[in-house]
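Researcher: We're teaching a course module on how sequence relates to structure. For the next exercise, students receive a sequence and then see the predicted structure as tokens, so they can try to spot secondary structure elements on their own. Here is the exercise chain.
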Amino acid sequence: MTFILDSMIDTEMSQGNVFGLFPTPLGQYKLPPLTKSQYKFVLGQDNKINRSNRISLSKSILEDKLMAGVKSKIESCLTEYFKLAVSSNPNLKLRMTQSWSNYTGVGENHHKHSHSNSVISGVYYVQTLDTDAITFHHKDRSNYHWDVGSPDLNAFNSSSWWMPTPQDSLMLFPSELVHSVSSRKTKDENAPDRISISFNTFYTGEIGNDDDATKLVLP
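Model: And here is the predicted structure for the students to work with:
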């Protein structure tokens, strides 16, 4: 598929434009806070060490009936994001495959990673500080060959993006996008854990077509 970009260059002047081709879509949404019972449910999940923070043992916490309302709101955001950033094909949707909670204390971090076997991933921020953030890493610039130096960073020459993570916000992004969380720093050593709910998705419906012999029906 080819998207036609109408050129805005004025051929009669020496001025031009720099276009951002193939940008990475990052969705950010504001959700209602969890109820007390939902918060207690997430906070009380059995968990284990995940390198330098903790992860819930359950990988289906959004399937619990107590979390049905949260899942429904997330799915509404997913539908909007998917239509704009991936496909407007009415025969194709996303279904949530796994969901789990993350706990990161003061001085802890979340290692650099991406989400395999998933199309779109997301993170819902249950509890954060104003200083909390997520870092996204450019896959083609992580080991950039030329070290030219640039004091003026922008969307074209940055190797990573630092994004604040407000409480009750939801972020959606392509699952192959590498991301991490730096070591949490605060003067309050008793600050509450950063708590988030992550999830993966996969296609459901039809992709491809008969004419190209690429049709695939997914449950």
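Model: If you want an answer key for the exercise: The first helix runs from residue 36 to 43. The CA atoms of residues 142 and 215 lie 35 Å apart.
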